Amino acid sequence: MVFVRTTPPRPVQVTAVFPELAPLARPAIRLHPRPGSPSVRDSSVGGPLLWPAGEPWPHCEDVHLHVDTGFRESLTEVRLQRRLQSGWRPGDRPPAYTAEEAALKERAAAQLAERLDAGPPWPAECPVPLLPVAQLFLRDIPLLRPPGQADLLQVLWCPYEHEPDCKPATAVFWRSAAEVGDILAIPPEPYEADYPGYVPEPCVLAPETITEYPNSLDLSPELQRMLEDWNRWQAAGACVDSSYAQYPREFYSLHLGNAPGWKVGGWPPWGRTDPYPRHCAACGEQMVPLLTIASREWDGGEGRSWAPQEEQATALDGSRGRGQYPSQPTRVEVGSTDNMQIYVCPTAPEHPHTDLIQ
Length: 358
Known about the structure:
Blueprint: H1 14-17, E1 26-30, E2 34-35, E3 44-45, E4 59-60, E5 73-74, H2 75-86, H3 99-117, E6 128-129, E7 131-137, E8 152-162, E9 167-175, E10 192-193, E11 203-204, E12 208-212, H4 221-227, H5 230-235, H6 248-255, E13 263-265, E14 288-294, H7 312-317, E15 339-344, E16 354-357
Antiparallel strand pairs: 1-12, 1-13, 2-11, 3-7, 3-11, 4-6, 5-10, 7-8, 8-9, 13-14, 14-15, 15-16
C-alpha cells in the first residue's frame, strides 16, 4: 500500500452520549479504493487476480438474453470512454481516440452488429466469463477470517443482471497465495456488460481500520427511541446543530452509524429493506457481512463528512475535474446507487455465500 486515507473524527463521540451503544461496536476496514495499476500480488478492486494457470476461470452458466436496455456496452467501449473522460475537463475540447483506440472501437462495433444480425432474442455468450471485483490479501485486511490455510479472498461477478433481484451473480473464492504457481496471464472476459457500472475500474487500496456502530434500523425499538430523545443529546453536551432537534436520529444515521463505501466487516447499510437475518444454507448459522461493494464512497451533502481527511477539499467542492469521480473511484454502480453486500458463514466461510442489494 503506497498511500493513506483517514476517516475524519466523528463530530460526536457516540458512546459518550449513549453508552448503551458501546457493546454494539464492531471493527470494520474501509478499503478506500482509488484508481491505479494493481498487480496480481496486490490487494485491489477490479484488478488482476492471482489465479492459477491450471485452474479453469469461473463462468456464469445461466442463460443471458440480449435485451436492448440502451445501456449495454462492450468492455472495450466502456474502457475507451473512461480513458477519454479521465483527460477531459468541462470547457476543454473533447479528447480524441488514438488510431489504435479507434480501431478497437470499430472492431467492437462490428462484432456487435454481427451479433445483432443473428436476430432476436440475441443470446449473449453463455457461459459468460466472470469479471474480477475484489482481491484481498489477509496481510492487508486482517479482519478476514479465511478457512484453513487460506490467506486470499477473490470475489468475481457476472456483469449481467440476474432474476429475481436484478443484480450481478457473485462468486467467492478462498485460496492460499503460496500455493499458486504459474499464474493465468490472460483471463477470458465477457464481451459486454449490462451496465458500465458492472465493470470495476482497477483500483489500489488504502485499508483503514475503524470502529462502527449499527445502522439505526438495526437497533432495538428502545434504542431507536433513545436516539430520538433530543433532551438526551443536549444533556450530554453533544454539539449537534439545532436543526436536528426534531429528528436527532437522522444525525446519528448520517454521521455516527455505519460508514459508507467499500469495506470489510462492520455493520450492514440497510435502507432498501428493513434488517432481516440471513442464514447459512449449509448449517443454518446466522451469516455475517464480509464485503460491502459500494456505488459511492460517500454521499453528497452532509454525508461528505465520511470523505477522508486527505480528500475533504475535493469532496466539499463536489466538482468533477478532468473526468474524475471523487466519490465513485471504482466506477461501480449497483442498484440505484446502492450497495451490494457479500455475507458468509462465520463458522465455515467456505460454505456457500449469499449477497444482498441495499
